[in-house]
Amino acid sequence: MARSAVRSRLQCTCGEDNEVFCILEGTYAFHIDGEERIARSGDVVAIPNGAVHALKNIGESSGRMFVFNVPGRIHAAFFSSLGEPMPVGTSEFPPPSDSPPDIPRLIEEARRLAVTIHP
User: Which end of the chain, C or N, has fewer beta carbons within 10 A?
Assistant: First the structure.
């Protein structure tokens, strides 16, 4: 499950993974191959393999979603290399970081895993 307060978009193509976003809370704008779709709590958005896509939290607050990546090898490696695991037994998300993401590191890791980041 992902929690997001992200206010910007980064377009990418995720190689061999299909993605499905199940919106639990919040409102998001998805851009898929040049078309915009607004998704709210209860909506499901499928991103086909190879589609140029991005998403942006356009709600007033943080949102929550459950994301399926199939087969998921790329995403498992990507997020494992960039994130930090939650302690065993934790059921609450930590507060969002006050520091900005390390974009050069994100782009390099994406390149390593054949995820294309589009300008």
Answer: C
pLDDT of 76-104, one tens digit each? 888 888 887 788 998 887 787 888 888 88
- In angstroms, the CA 74 to CA 21 distance is 16
Q: How far apart are CA 89 and CA 32, in angstroms?
A: 36
pLDDT digits (tens, 9 = 90+) for 28-38: 999 999 899 99
Q: What CA–CA distances, in Å, run from 27 to 10, 22, 32, 51, 80?
A: 17, 11, 16, 21, 26
Q: Which residue has the tokens 């087969």?
A: 71
Cα–Cα distance measured from residue 2 to residue 105, given in angstroms and rounded to the nearest whole number: 20
Q: From CA 70, how far away is CA 66, in angstroms rounded?
A: 13
Structure tokens at 29: 């704008």
Rounded Cα gap, residues 106 and 9, in angstroms: 14
